[in-house]
Amino acid sequence: MTDIVVFGSLVFAAALFFTAHVVVTWGLVRHHPRWRAPIGFFVPPLAPFWAWREGMRVRAIVWVVALVGYVVARVLAAR
């Protein structure tokens, strides 16, 4: 793979992950108990778990897929 493709995928995956994390956190603010939103923001693995339990399944899946994409891009960038 060329370096520009790896770099582009790394940037895209990071942006998607951060956006998904904020969207999941915002969704947690709208559901009770609201204390899960700040904890989910600062302890990232809890955010998709609570989102899944609250029925925000698409958001949780996007969060996990973005994280996996970011990790794959990081591994490819390290080569």
Distance between the termini: 10 Å
Summarize model confidence as the mean pLDDT.
96
Fraction of residues in H or I helices: over 70%
Overall outline: elongated
**How much is the radius of gyration in Å?**
14 Å
Compute the number of helices. 4
List the secondary-structure elements in sequence, H or E: HHHH
What would you call the structural class? mainly alpha
- The percent range for strand residues is under 5%
Main sheet makeup: none
Unreliable segments of 5+ consecutive residues: none
Total DSSP E strands: 0
Short description:
This protein is an all-alpha fold and 79 residues long.
Description:
This protein is an all-alpha fold and 79 residues long. It is built from 4 helices and no strands. The longest helix has 27 residues, at 3-29. The termini are close together. The model has no long low-confidence stretch (mean pLDDT 96).
Q: Secondary structure elements and their pairing?
A:
Blueprint: H1 3-29, H2 36-42, H3 46-53, H4 57-78
Helix pairs in contact: 1-2, 1-3, 1-4, 2-3, 3-4
Kindly list the characteristics that best describe this protein.
single chain; mainly alpha
